[in-house]
Amino acid sequence: MRKVTIQEIADSLGISRTTVWKVFGGQTGVSQDLRSKIIAKAQELNYTIPEGSYPAADAAAEAPLNIALAVCRPETSTFWLAIIHRIAKELSGHQVNLIYTYLPTSVGAGYTLPASLTNGGTHGIIIINVYDEQLLRLLAASHLPKVFLDTSTAVPSSELNGDLVLTENRASIAQITESLIASGRRSFGFIGDIDYAQSNHERFEGFTKALAQHGLSMDSQRSLTGPIGRDTYKEEISAFVAALPGLPDAFVCANDHVACILMQLLLGRGVRIPEDVAVSGFDANQEYSLADDLTTVQVPNSHIGFRLAQQILFRIKYPNVPYEVISIASQVIFRGSTTASAPGIPTE
Questions:
Q1: Residue 94, Cβ neighbours under 10 Å: how many?
Q2: Mean pLDDT to the nearest integer, 176-197
Q3: Dist. CA 34–CA 18, nearest whole Å
Q4: What does pTM read for this prediction?
Q5: CATH of domain 170-299
Q6: Rounded Cα gap, residues 231 and 87, in angstroms
Q7: What's the mean pLDDT in 193-203?
Q8: In this structure, which topology does domain 66-166+301-327 adopt according to CATH?
Q9: Are 172 and 332 in contact (CB under 8 A)?
Q10: What gap in Å lies between CA 211 and CA 286, rounded to an integer?
Q11: What are the start and end residues of each CATH 3.40.50.2300 domain in the chain?
Q12: How is the beta sheet containing 97-102 ordered, strand by strand?
């Protein structure tokens, strides 16, 4: 009978040969669940299993998985809570503990990750609302399985050492921009820090590509695309509006927070929306003033939470398969802050 090899076992499970070798060599670094799968596959293939490879007799009583939810600040908005609650619900259904781990919004050179992420009691990390480059790189360097919801442009997906989940950004913003062009708008400004998050940058790319396809370009004098202080959005956008040499036909904004601040400022100056200038956002976050009338992009928050939970469980089970960049579809919703919607596009 032909002798089964370690490589065959590894290939059949989609894992590395080294992981199988660790199990049969009595090494650490392989979860109990994966160890059991490797041994079961070896038995199925009639591989001669060395002594000491079997899980402990009390493996059934093994403590459940602990997943850290790493966030930069406590989130109380319904937008984020919908994501977090779905993560908790999904992991609870798999008997997995979810542990909140709060991180600073920015860190210095001497910062180290909390002990809860480094003491061996955590089996994986879901990372949301983290955009500081140094902090992202510290998390990326962790050996734990990781899933990120968005990232900074300074730390691309290829450097995260984990999976990345994003909403679809380019096509939806391009769709809004196309509809504004179709309604006769010809001058455009963009507002939002395009390097703060990869999602913001992708939205900007969708905006500029749509303009270029019609021989148009962004009006840089009427755009605010550089860094904006996290706690000074209203002040900085107000100063920007006050210094404008004139208004474009439309402002496309990186998110609803920016768009609603802008609308409030414009309306306070007697500007009519959309007659004088059209404004759009992103996220469909109904917590902001004026959001009911804002053209935006619906993000499936609950599904994002479900997908983050499922992906961290997958990553823990299959730590050696290639990392994934996952794009979750979004939907444009045209409302009164822009002109009439394009044919076949949902409106509210």
A1: 12
A2: 97
A3: 13
A4: 0.80
A5: 3.40.50.2300
A6: 27
A7: 97
A8: Rossmann fold (3.40.50)
A9: yes
A10: 28
A11: 66-166+301-327, 170-299
A12: 97-102, 66-71, 124-128, 146-149, 163-167, 325-328
